[in-house]
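Hi there,

I know you've been waiting on this one. I reran it after we fixed the sequence typo, so this is the corrected version. Both the input and the resulting structure follow.
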Amino acid sequence: MKQTEAIIAWTPARWSELKPETAGQVVVLPAPDEAGVAKRYVMRAGASSSALAGLSEEARIARLFIDFQTLVVRDGIDPQVAHRAFLAIDEYRFRIAPDTEGAEFEDPPEED
């Protein structure tokens, strides 16, 4: 799914007493979240932010990787858990190192 259609929801690992059922977890959901799954988590980013749509493509992609860094470094989400969740976002898959599990080419190279 496109970044502008994806809700990133997570609960920092350190908040295990506040939200033990989702602490240290992250999900990427399609917007709108009609089932209300994102409400089980403390933090949200992505399509849940009205400012995202107004950003340039470069700024949106920067925001995506800043959000990833925030989840991992500040909030203690396991990097591989965050990576697997973010693979649901097209812009993430197309911009990570091509030899990383789950990476894809937006425009696959032509084969000879």
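Quick highlight: The beta strands are 6-10, 26-30, 43-46.

Best,
R. S.
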